[in-house]
């Protein structure tokens, strides 16, 4: 179902907005890339990605896990983070990009550890998605509250 997503995503002629499922897999691929930024991609991060996907689109656990698995394949073949993120920015509405940053913060803290690599990547992606530092910080706070943590 998502086999041609990467080619659709990277088409250079007049990019069109991504449909719901394609957008979710592309966003999930960003979450996977973030989770791998500290060279540890564990079950806690996979579970958090599944939870975020389920919450965003009302998916059951199996559908969310299937979408994450597709995202893992897309992420492995996606271009560098800058190009990949800019492509998503051109295809996803601003309001949804704010939600993406909150989701990325959730994934960054899913394993209960702060990672400078993951935090740096969220900040980079936020800028590339057109989200300013203040809004990214607010999204970080929302993510921590969602996860039941206090800000650190």
From TrEMBL:
Pfam hit, one: TerB
Species the sequence originates in: Paracoccus mangrovi
Protein name as annotated: TerB family tellurite resistance protein
Record domain Co-chaperone DjlA N-terminal: where: 25-141
SUPFAM superfamilies listed in its UniProt record: TerB-like (SSF158682)
Family matches, as CDD domains: terB_like_2
């Amino acid at each position: 179902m998502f086999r041609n997503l990467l080619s659709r995503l990277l088409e250079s002629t007049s990019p069109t907005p991504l449909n719901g499922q394609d957008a979710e897999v592309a966003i999930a691929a960003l979450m996977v890339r973030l989770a791998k930024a500290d060279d540890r991609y564990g079950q806690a991060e996979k579970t958090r990605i599944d939870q975020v996907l389920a919450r965003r689109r009302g998916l059951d656990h199996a559908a969310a896990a299937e979408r994450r698995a597709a995202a893992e394949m897309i992420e492995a073949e996606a271009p560098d983070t800058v190009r990949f993120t800019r492509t998503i920015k051109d295809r996803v509405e601003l309001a949804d990009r704010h939600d993406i940053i909150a989701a990325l913060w959730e994934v960054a803290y899913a394993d209960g550890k702060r990672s400078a690599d993951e935090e740096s990547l969220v900040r980079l992606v936020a800028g590339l998605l057109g989200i300013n530092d203040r809004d990214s910080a607010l999204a970080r706070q929302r993510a921590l509250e969602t996860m039941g943590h206090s800000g650190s």
